[in-house]
Amino acid sequence: MEAQSSSGLLLSRKRRREGSNGEAEEGERLGKKIPRCTVGLKHPAPFADELVPADNKPYVRVPMEEAKRGTPPERPVRVYADGIFDMFHSGHARALMQAKCLFPNTHLIVGICSDDLTHKYKGFTVMNEDERYDAVTHCRYVDEVVRNAPWTLTPEFLTKHRIDFVAHDDLPYSSAGSDDVYKHIKEAGMFAPTQRTEGISTSDIITRIVRDYDVYVRRNLQRGYTAKELNVGFINAKKYHLQERVDKVKRKVRDVEEKSKEFVQKVEEKSIDLIQKWEEKSREFIGNFLQMFGPEGALKHMLKEGKGRMLQAISPRQSPSSSPTREERSPSPTFRLPFFSKTSPPPSPPPHHIF
Known about the structure:
Blueprint: H1 2-12, H2 22-30, H3 64-69, E1 77-83, H4 90-100, E2 106-112, H5 115-121, H6 129-137, E3 144-146, H7 155-160, E4 165-169, H8 183-187, E5 191-194, H9 202-211, H10 213-222, H11 234-293, H12 298-314
């Protein structure tokens, strides 16, 4: 049952892609919107020694012309790509993407060399072989992983895994006493070149770590790793701890400087606002002052009006220009005392005659 499920998993991972290389596909993808709901893979690629053995049909390699035209779904083009894949990164993934996109119907097999072969022919690795195997199985372009792959591909290995083409960059790969370990593959017409991704490689990543070694050691010491785990001596460990304390003091000083700059900036902004408000108020005050006490201000007009009223109040009235005649004048009333008045006495009564 496990073998059948593995075979079903293998078939379910077959994907058809248009285009001959990953660069063309990436170029088309830039101006193209990708649907939000995409079908994702839910399982890692199986290992070759866990799959059901191939049928007993004789191995017949697919020619290049037929592979480019497209093969039937039941007969994908089996492309093999090998490598160390230490510290698996985007450069590795892009190379495998190009290998997967070489033909319309491709089954990508990835071979990974063991630690013994790698340390012997290339050098020490950061990740061990199990970690490297597992990292590649989680790449979406990989259909099958061969553990403990050979350093040089033999006809027996190619026949066992029914390999049609070998994908690798076209630069000569000198190793194991050979100027190019893929020379016999190229001569047999089984080589399919891919392009390296500039600016990213395992050696570049290791170079960055070595360049910033002190920074990473101090960071890991701060995270709880011991000096013994980092292979750091007692004196260097104390030096790194001292540097960390100095950096903390520097950070605090920098924080204080930034806060003081912010405070000064806020004070400057407030002072500018106060100055602007003061200027507005001062202009308003000066305008009101001039309006009241200026040459043509309200106070001058008030003084003029008051002065005119005072002069009018204290100055005598002027005679009319033409005096009326004596006859026209109204008689002035005379005032006489009662005892100086010459009034006629009342008439005396007539005498009475006595008869």
